[in-house]
Amino acid sequence: MTESQQKPRLLSGDTPTGRLHLGHWVGSVENRVKMQDKYDCYFLIANIQAFTTRMDKPAEVHQNVMEVMMDYLAVGIDPKRSTIFLQSEIPAIAEMTVFFSMLAPYARVMRNPTIKDEIRDKGLGENYPFGFLLYPISQAADILVFQSQVVPVGEDQIPHLELTREVARRFNQLYCGVDSHTEDADYVKQGGLFPIVETLLGRTKRLVGINGPGADGNLMKMSKSLNNAIFLSDDADTIKKKIMAMYTDPKRLKATDKGSVENNPLWIFHDTFNPDTEWVQATKERYRAGDIGDVECKRKLIDVLEAFIGPIRERRLQFEHDLHQVKTLLQEGTAKANVVANKTLLLAKEAMKQRYF
Ligand code: TRP
């Protein structure tokens, strides 16, 4: 057994809807970068999933695949240690999606809170395509065709991982003879093909955006489509402008007013990104007491974010100037991923007694 086979397998990925932002970082990407030595890591760019709501914008999806790939490389996902690949070029995922779609009851697929949130937030009404409802099953295939054990994701992905577990249990029970009373951790030991995945949540499960609350009065999560994101590739001037204009405590009109640090993106961001926790605690007290202005706290946050994003932006620039290399790395990762996925597909077909030739 090679060393990489002994490491537990980890898989995660992103739908290429745009460049990655700070919400992606604290929700999942940070964990992925950290896990590269301990796990055999697979990261997918889910371009078919992007088509579920952007089938009419193919050029944009193409561009965003490249953007996400450059973001991955810039943040430190290392193609020498980890396999980065493209969803649409892994035929085994599509094949397993069809088989898995038989293992998830229709009503179960419809009872997915993330799907409901997306229909509401993206204003899809009743006009979403059939394939949109299929994507959580396709996501189960993404995960299971690599026999992944751990999946680092943001909180919104929890329902999809629960569905992935249900599909894996059912497959293992129906086709591998695993008893239905088996503990999740024991499925593979009992002869199951698919591990029952563990969710690894980020340190901040849901980062808020910079624009304040939505119609329900709650702060909205950071999201490109809500136009409230700070991207990992934003230039220094953009970061400055965004932070200077960011929502804070609306009741505070001048620096001597007492400020609230709760539900205040300025302080949520300091808590999340400022390594100088002593400064944060002390300055929060001054803010509460009306002893320091928003602008000074924002200036500090600009420095903190620039210190974090600056080096990422620099690395990204090198890749932006060598798109050929970016594509080659994605192609090589995809070739490696296909070897693993095709192997699992054969085993799955064998288990389902659908291997004839
Ligand atoms: N649904 C995820 C997102 O939009 C992307 C994704 C697709 C994914 N397949 C996955 C994440 C498999 C983890 C595992 O962010």
Write a structural description.
- The structure is a single chain.
- The protein is mainly alpha-helical.
- The chain has 2 domains: 3-202 and 323-351, 3-Layer(aba) Sandwich (Rossmann fold), CATH 3.40.50; 208-317, Tyrosyl-Transfer RNA Synthetase.
- Helix content is 53%, strand content 9%.
- The chain has 14 helices and 7 strands.
- The chain has helices spanning 3-6, 22-35, 47-54, 58-75, 91-100, 106-110, 113-121, 130-144, 158-176, 236-244, 265-273, 277-289, 294-320, 323-351, and strands at residues 9-14, 40-45, 83-86, 150-153, 198-201, 208-213, 219-221.
- A 3-stranded parallel β-sheet has the order 1-2-3.
- Helix 2 links the parallel strand 1 and strand 2.
- Helix 4 packs across helix 13 (294-320).
- It is globular and about 75 Å long.
- It starts with a helix and ends in a 6-residue tail after the last helix.
- The model has no long low-confidence stretch (mean pLDDT 95).
- The site of tryptophan (TRP) has 14 residues, from strand 1, helix 8 and strand 4.
